[in-house]
Amino acid sequence: MRPDGGVLPFFVYGTLRPGEYNHRRFLAGRTVAAEPARWVGADLYEGPGYPYAVEGAGTVHGEVVRPAPGEYAQLLALLDRLEDYVPGDPHNDYERIARTVETATGPVDAWVYVAAPAVAARLRAGGRVLPGGDWLTRAGS
Q1: What does the pLDDT profile of the chain (141 residues) look like in tens digits?
Q2: How far is it, in rounded angstroms, from Cα 130 to Cα 80?
Q3: Is-contact 15 24, C-beta < 8 A?
Q4: Is 0.90 surpassed by the pTM of this model?
């Protein structure tokens, strides 16, 4: 939940997208909708079998997924565990932040797992940005 108690959907851009491996493992049956979306103001970097989003000048493509009724708390805990995210832990690879993404029906506030500061700095210094910001169109997919 947000600090104000609100429930947010999730913006997924990599292995959690519909049709991808972690979508089947973690989201199938726990969500009611997936809507194409894009996050303007971020770059997508190639990771070791999965991507990292980093705030930047590009656009990251993905989907907004909405938890099924009664699934939010469990889904939030599952995704935090998948991303090895612990609030306040300086060793996180990912951070969970709220950002506004664009959909065909308008802007949506959503949780996004982004590269933690140390990871983001390494990626900006020598990482490979995925052209077009879309994990599904990467070479070899």
Answers
A1: 444 456 899 999 999 999 899 999 999 999 998 999 999 999 999 988 899 999 999 999 999 999 998 999 999 999 999 999 999 999 999 999 999 999 999 999 999 999 999 999 999 999 999 999 999 998 555
A2: 24
A3: no
A4: yes
Fold of 10-126: Hypothetical upf0131 protein ytfp (3.10.490)
| Amino acid, res. 130 | L
CA separation for the pair 49, 79 (Å, rounded) = 17
Buried b (16+ CB within 10 A) or exposed e, 123-139: beeebeebeebbbeeee
Phi, psi of 71 (to 5 degrees): -105, -10
Please give the Cα distance from 3 to 49 (Å, whole number): 32
Are 106 and 17 in contact by the 8 Å Cβ rule? The answer is no
Which residue reads 């990482």 in tokens? 127
- What Cα–Cα distance (Å) separates residue 12 from each residue in 4, 38, 50, 99? 22, 10, 12, 12
Residues in the chain: 141
The span from the CA of 41 to the CA of 28, in Å, is 28
